[in-house]
Each structure stands twice: as C-alpha cells, then as structure tokens.
Structure prediction request, 69 residues.
Amino acid sequence: MTVPVPTRPCFVCQNSSTVDVDVDGFIRWQSGALVQDAFPDMAPQQRELLMTGTHPECWKAAFLADDED
Prediction:
C-alpha cells in the first residue's frame, strides 16, 4: 500500500510535488531510518525529491551548470 507524501518547495523552481511511497517504508523513515534504508528500491532522484523537494531537472540546472563552465 502506498501513501502520497507532499514535498517541500523546490529551492530552484519553488514548486512542491507529491511522491507516492510505501506506507511501511514511510513509517520506518519517519521513525529515524535513513531514506535509502527505508526505500531501497526507490531511485536516488526520487529519494532526493522526497527529502528536499528538489526536482531532478532542477538539481541538474543548479549544480551541473557550474561544471560545464
């Protein structure tokens, strides 16, 4: 069973999102488990979105742009 979890606003675009997560994993995460342990099958980009609200494309725009200069 999954539950929708709203995210914080993204620091780049200021938009919030919703991530559907496994209920048992969500309970483990909220109880102090590391996000990668609570959601081992979730893509790292989705875990970042869940933790910080940062969208994958916004992450690239903010951090990879500096590497290309």
In short: Helices lie at 23-30, 35-38, 44-52, 56-68. Strands lie at 2-6, 18-22. The chain has four helices and two strands. The chain has one domain: 2-68.
